[in-house]
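Researcher: Please translate sequence to structure tokens.
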Amino acid sequence: MDRARINCWGGQPAPLVICEARSTKGVLERIAAEYLAPITATNGQSGGFLVAEIAPLLRGNDRPVLYIGDHEIGGPADQIEDNTRRYVEEHAQRRIRWTRIRIQHVLIEP
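Model: Translation complete:
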């Protein structure tokens, strides 16, 4: 055997990482793969994508979600997250243990 992997989640499903932005998902894909954690992006709040691709990963199990989005308290990012959570919970047919990880964008001027 060339390589063995140990499940670091103690027999529980790895958290599903949902990113608000596809670019964030792209940056984090390699790291998530190292931890055997599935990762996806909201894909512009596409209801079909949330129902067909994300909800099945959360149905019939206790998989938690790590949500990565912008740090905009009370702004559009909060509305995107709230809508995503509500829609996914409805179609996964369960309450989801949801942890928000906010990204603070900092403008660095030359």
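Researcher: Any highlights?
Model: The longest helix spans residues 76-92.
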